[in-house]
Design brief:
The chain has 249 residues and is an alpha/beta fold. It is built from eight helices and twelve strands.
Amino acid sequence: MRPLGARLMRLAGALSLLLALGCSEPIYDVEARVGPEDERGREQLSIGKLVKRRQIAPVRSVAESVWQTRPNRDAEEQPDRVIRELNIPAGATVVDFGAGVGYYTWRLARQVGPQGKVIAVDIQPGMIERLEETLATRGVDNVETVLALEDNARLPEGKVDLAILVDVYNELQQPEISMQHLRRALKPDGRLVIIDYKREDANIPIPAPYRMTVSEVREEVEPVGFEFVGTLDFVPIQHIVIFRPGNPG
């Protein structure tokens, strides 16, 4: 067991992280999530697997869902502009993959309108419950919620115009399988959008496994059967990476 002083220093660091993010409730259970130091003195997350050259991040629990609705998130991530810049047409079918409590879901539902549909997917029943509460509160009725499995997204094939993953790709426990399901769900002219925190920016106070570079995203997604379209770069803390269905590498 570590000395008490070291444990207190880690807890103080966690508190500093929360304050920096402008959040009033815990986001990471540091003692449970952070494992022993490796031979170079770097602390490693105690669960997760290596995928390509990165470590899969632990899935944020329902208890941590306050992170998704923190007061400063709108200013930091600009969700309304993101949806606007993606030019999602009215009447479209959109998948919000890893929808959580519905931070993006209700906005997407508003964008596609009453003739469109949002399929909101999550693997945690508690998240689905909170998502449905969000939709009911906002009077949104063009959303289908789907409780997925890690190896089965439970999506219709060839029906989706756009699939979006916001701050979730790095938590997928079986990312290749998830991407294969999404590729099958997309129409031939559909789009896949992955939004994640920038790994290369050391000033972003998010643990490294929850961040990715554009190159890392491309290295994992393109071999599964997607073609890189481009990026949107107006959000300072996030990459917005756009793909379309292609041929598996």
